Amino acid sequence: MAHRGWQIRSVQLRIVLWGGLCLLLLTAAVAGYAAVAARTQALEAAQAAARAQAAANAAAVKAEMEVAMDAARTLAQMLAATKGNNPVSLTREQVDGLLKSVLRQNSSFLGVYTAWEPMAFDGKDKQYANKPGHDATGRYIPYWSRGADGQINLEPLVDYETEGAGEYYLCSRRTKQECLIEPYSYAVQGKEVFMTSLVAPIVVGDRFYGIAGVDIALDTLQERTDAVNLYDGTARMALISNGGLVAGATGRADLVGKPLPELNPEYEHDLAAVQAGEEMAEYAVGELQVYVPFQVGQSATPWSVALYVPEERILAPANATMWTLIAIGIGAMLACLVLLWVTAAQIARPIRKITDVARAITAGDLSQAIEVRQADEVGQLAEAFRGMAAALAAKARVAEQVAGGDLTVEVPVASDKDVLGQALRTMVASLRDLIGRVVETAANVTAASAQLAGAAAQASDATAQITTTMQQIATGTAQQTEAITRAAGSVEQLARAIDGVARGAQEQAASVAKSTTVVGQISSAIGQVTASAESGAEGSQQAAAAAKTGVQTVEQTIAGMHAIRE
Question: What's the pTM value of the predicted model, to 2 decimals?
Answer without folding.
Answer: 0.60
